[in-house]
Amino acid sequence: MLKRIIPALAALLMACVGNTECRLDDPRSCSSGLVCEHVRGKDIPQCFAPVQVEGKVFDLLSGQPVAGAEVTALDINGTAVAGVAVSGVDGHYALPIPTERSDSEGTPVGKRVTLRAAARNPPMSRAMGQDIGARAPRAP
């Protein structure tokens, strides 16, 4: 009898808690607000809170926020590593960065990226700057 109860309890627990395994090619395989990432040394990726770069794009001469700027993250070869974030009316943006994880707890593996901001509606004769903050939350 006990041999039947334990697997049933395990299945119920998985149904209630959810499976953290996911498919890298299916962004819907994780719960809302989570992303599917590769875990170093594991064959199966897992769902984690996203690693993202947040900041503000502003005009270097006036200090005013730049709305509608496209912000991209580039690797050391100049290749885009993520999608494009568009700054809001206050100049703020949040850009999720796909990041390999070092363990099943979701600890991000460090990587260096360069951010590039470009005006969506040229001409823009003034230089733009970025006040950048990075946040890498842990999965709950």
Automatic annotation (TrEMBL):
This is Lipoprotein. PROSITE patterns: PROKAR_LIPOPROTEIN. SUPFAM superfamilies: Carboxypeptidase regulatory domain-like (SSF49464). Residues 97-140 are annotated as: Disordered. It comes from Hyalangium minutum.
